[in-house]
Write a structure and sequence with these properties.
Blueprint (H helix, E strand, L loop, with lengths): L1 H16 L3 E5 L5 H11 L3 E3 L2 H6 L6 E6 L1 H11 L2 E6 L2 E6 L10 E8 L10 E4 L4 E4 L5 E6 L2 E8 L6 E7 L3 E6 L28 E5 H5 L20 E3 L7 E3 L10 E2 L2 E2 L4 E2 L4 E2 L8 E5 L9
Parallel strand pairs: 2-5, 6-12
Antiparallel strand pairs: 1-3, 4-5, 6-9, 7-8, 7-10, 10-11, 13-20, 14-15, 16-17, 18-19
Pfam families: CarbopepD_reg_2, Plug
Membrane topology: Multi-pass membrane protein
Keywords: Cell outer membrane, Membrane, Transmembrane, Transmembrane beta strand, Transport
Length: 299
């Protein structure tokens, strides 16, 4: 049994080394060219970071006939500034001096000041790509741990122009930054008195008034203003439904409304399903609507 295992291991290793390749690389080719040639002629797959594909451009020519995988890896390690290593059916590629395990983080610290060199409390320091960030303390200082590499760091504070810097973090770094005021200057806004504001000095509540000038400004059908239709623009008033000329006030029915014209009851308030009004808009001065707290004189 022992002899059988030894023979199997020897045959398996010999089979891997027997995958001889023909490699032809010209100046200017990238790692993708080498990857395509190896993967088409063998069972090996190249594994490397995306940035290596763009960073590594061959400045030498390589021409090999009937070369084994192990010999090709030795040649590549000798001629290129990268480490090639076979792991199973994969060939890993990494720059020289870079370990496969996670690198220890570095500390980015510093202070943020305003235009008068006063510390800014609460300024945000964020690294969007890593979804990490922090804020400054009362003295304008901050500290943030980031992995080694290049990062886009953004400093922002309300009312100031944001600052974005690209840093190569390969050691602990200390910053001292000054922010400048920013933002947009808006045009002045003049607030005038609203003549429709509620007069809190009067005891009467839940009453709305419309002048004829306001009623005539409301778009109407057939060009004839209707004082009753203008009530639908007020809060708490809804239409009684399609094909109906009445209106509901705070959930009440249309037949529960009392309509008075100069204190005279009006029992039919519309013509032809509400298309025409019974009130002459030129003869009406104003309209008052009581939705609650109705005076006793109206019953």
């Amino acid at each position: 049994m022992k002899y059988f295992l030894i023979c199997f291991i020897c045959i398996y290793g010999f089979g891997l080394n027997c995958q001889n390749l023909t490699i032809k690389i010209e100046k200017g080719n990238t790692m993708n060219t080498l990857k395509d040639q190896i993967e088409k002629q063998s069972d090996y797959k190249l594994a490397y970071a995306e940035e290596i594909s763009s960073q590594l451009t061959f400045n030498i020519e390589m021409d090999y006939e009937n070369i084994s995988i192990s010999d090709l890896i030795k040649e590549l390690n000798h001629k290129l500034p990268h480490d090639f290593k076979a792991l199973g059916n994969n060939i890993t590629i990494k720059p020289h001096g870079i370990k496969m395990d996670t690198q220890s983080p570095h500390t980015l610290s510093g202070s943020i000041y305003d235009e008068n060199n006063q510390p800014l409390f609460g300024a945000s320091i964020t690294v969007q790509k890593l979804q990490k960030g922090t804020t400054t303390d009362e003295e304008g200082k901050f500290s943030l741990q980031l992995p080694q590499g290049r990062h886009e760091v953004t400093i922002s504070f309300l009312g100031y122009n944001s600052i974005t810097k690209s840093i190569l973090l390969n050691r602990d770094m200390d910053w001292s930054l000054q922010m400048q005021p920013g933002g947009e200057t808006l045009e002045e806004v003049i607030i005038e008195q609203n003549n429709k504001a509620t007069n809190i000095k009067k005891p009467q509540m839940s009453m709305n008034s419309l002048s004829m000038k306001e009623i005539k400004q409301i778009p109407v059908a057939l060009g004839e203003p209707d004082p009753l239709k203008s009530l639908l623009t007020l809060p708490g008033v809804t239409n009684a439904g399609e094909g109906s000329s009445g209106f509901n006030v705070r959930g009440g029915a249309a037949d529960q409304n009392l309509i008075l014209l100069d204190n005279v009851p009006i029992y039919s308030d519309s013509h032809l399903f509400g298309f025409f009004s019974v009130f002459n808009a030129d003869a009406v001065n104003s309209l008052d609507l009581y939705k609650g707290g109705i005076p006793s004189k109206y019953g």
